[in-house]
Structures are given as structure tokens and as C-alpha cells.
Amino acid sequence: MGRVTGLARVYIADTPAEAWHIHNVLAQHGIQSRLMNEALFGATGEIPVLESLPEVWVKESEVVEAEAIIKAVRSEPVPNSSWLCHDCGEHIDSVFAICWKCGASLADAAE
Ligand SMILES: [Zn+2]
After folding, report:
1. Whole-model pTM above 0.85?
2. Spacing, Cα 105 to ligand 1 middle (Å)
3. Ligand 1 centroid to 51 CA: how many Å?
4. Are residues 85 and 98 part of one domain?
5. Are 20 and 67 in a shared domain?
6. Do residues 11 and 34 both lie within one domain?
7. Under 8 Å CB-to-CB from 13, ≥6 apart: which residues?
8. Which residues lie across from 92 on neighbouring strands?
9. Quick one: 56 exposed, middle or buried, by C-beta within 10 A (0-12, 13-18, 19+)?
10. How many angstroms separate the alpha carbon of residue 24 from the centre of ligand 1?
11. What is the reported pLDDT for 44?
């Protein structure tokens, strides 16, 4: 059934990069997450796209907190082009509005 004991899925990403971004943001908040299906992404072409999308799973006890963090990440304004983090200088892909490395947000930089 695809269910892993003690874990719950909190997010289905469009791309492996997005899944890793969520993973890194959660890690900054002290939540260890596991990526599922990431290894299958684009592997053979025989796997239906919907089944190979990378998923982010966390401990059931941390689901509420993780979902709140993900919601905050997703509601951030998304820039049209890639940007440099104002705190650590990391190059961030345009689909993300929060630095995966240090957690600074693009919105903060604009203020
Ligand atoms: Zn940064």
C-alpha cells in the first residue's frame, strides 16, 4: 500500500529539486524527512509520472509541524528568476523563495 510504519507523507513535489528543497527546509527546523520515489524519477520511462513524483515523508508525530512549515514555504512569493541569498550568497533556483542553505527568504531581502 506504500505506507511506511510511523511515517506519513506531507508533500508531493513536482521535481526532485523541489523535494530536496522541502527536505532541507524541514531539516533547518529540526525535522528529519525521507524522500520517497526520488530514485525512480525519470529512471526508465516505464513508471507512470504520477507514481514517480518524489514525495516527502516525516514522522507521524511531526506531521502537523512539517505541514505548517511547508505551507509557509509554498506561500512565499516566488521570484521570476534565480536569485542569490542575501545572507549566505547561495544561488537559489527560481522556483524557491527560501534559501535551502540558511533559511533566509527572498521576501526578507526585499525589505
Ligand atoms: Zn542563504
Report:
1. no
2. 8
3. 32
4. yes
5. yes
6. yes
7. 19, 21, 22, 53, 54, 55, 56
8. 83
9. buried
10. 12
11. 53
Using the mean position of ligand 1's atoms as its centre, give its distance from the Cα of residue 27 in Å. 14
Residues near ion ligand 1 (CB < 5 Å) are 85, 87-88, 90, 99, 101-102, 104
Phi, psi of 84 (to 5 degrees): -105, 135
CATH for 27? 3.30.70
Gap from CA of 79 to ligand 1 centroid (Å)? 15
Q: What is the pLDDT along the chain (111 residues), one digit of tens a residue?
A: 445 579 999 999 888 888 888 999 999 999 999 988 755 545 555 555 555 688 999 999 999 999 999 988 877 665 567 888 888 998 888 778 888 889 888 776 554
Position 111 scores a pLDDT of: 47
Q: Are residues 99 and 49 both part of a single domain?
A: no
Judge if 71 and 17 occupy the same domain.
yes
| Cα 10 to ligand 1 centre (Å) | 24
